[in-house]
Amino acid sequence: MKKITISDLFAMKNKQKIVMITAYDALFAKLFDDYADMILVGDSLNMSFNGKNETIGLSVKEMIYHAKAVRTGSKRAFLVVDVPFGAIYSKKVALKNCIEIYKKTGCDAVKIEGGSEIKGIVKALSQNGVGVMGHIGLKPQLSRKEGGFKVAGRDEETAKKILADAIELELAGAGLLLLEGIPSELGKKITNSVKIPTIGIGAGSDTDGQVLVWSDAFGFFEEFKPKFVKRFLDGANLIRNAIQDYADEVRTKKFPSSEYEYTK
Ligand code: KIV
Fold it and tell me: Residues forming the annotated binding site for 3-methyl-2-oxobutanoate?
């Protein structure tokens, strides 16, 4: 079981699709590790597991807590950790927070939302030896400011800006790019314009890889379903059926039967 490195991901570009999924704890990271090339400790955790309606609100400390658990469960996948909202308001603060995440979690890269406006931060991180994944297109950390999660790059001007962001982030030293919520043609154009691997979520089928939030993909998160989410499992109903069976058996005294009891 060889650990996946950034060189492996570069070698996969144009040859083999890269599979990425989120995880927030060791239990699920361990389950995903044999199948996914990359695992993301995303700040989507604030929505899928903390029950909030946005990704804003997590601290660096909380991201580190979850990422350490994921690193414990995942031995093979390339691990990326999200830098939470508000953690990069200056270059100095960004370096401090990102290096802390990198050192304490053992992740392979930190992921930062933002385009050309953060190229100075990306350059400083890269020069200090920190792996960086850029995140452009729909940026969930801006959902409050922008009034929701909106597909980006539908008009020519914004599409040009997103393509320019991709190129500037690559030049600044980003080793990977996450493309979220953009038209498929733009996803393809960016992927063909940069040498670094692109991972898409709602960015069409031509990106170098795909990522999904696991609780979306496996049907546990029921608040809403973005167009790009395919549910590979009816997770929430499986759990409802299981808890119903458990509750019924406790109430009818069917459980615990003798096989689950200790003898003297
Ligand atoms: O936080 C997250 O899970 C993300 C998704 C877009 C994959 O960044």
Answer: 43-44, 82, 111
